[in-house]
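Practice problem: predict the structure.
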Amino acid sequence: MTTDTHAEESGGPAPRPLTEDALSALLGAHRFGTLATVRRDGYPHLTTMLYSWDPAARLVRFSTTEDRLKVRQLRNNPRASLHVATEDHWTFAVAEGDAELSEPTAVPGDAVGRELLAMLPESLAPQDEAAFFAQQTAERRVVIRLKVSRLYGTAIDGNGGRGDEEARG
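Answer:
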């Protein structure tokens, strides 16, 4: 990794790479990130998404509807990345890999519907699961599963340690 020579010369902060554990902790500490997919013209398509990180499986899950642009793009090219930053932006993580798409949830309470339910944090768990499953089916929800093959990111020291603390969880 290259360092910021100007920052070093001026005595300012310089970026440093994060360990796998710190990157995983950062992904686990947040719920929203920016998903990048590849458009047909080669440019990235970026969208803010709620996600669920499974560190043991190195898998990021997203919920979306079957008719979304990102779904068509992932069917055309499964390469995707998720960018997550601390609130102060001094620390970030990127998870890269190939995505796979589930079939749309077709019957309330089917396997895809249950996977969608399991992705929700406890604070967002529905009181009426049957209504949740019916809504997911009506919306033709799918699960995007990003199989992470590469994690990278940096922290910039000199920010009072805020980014480091968030990255450590």
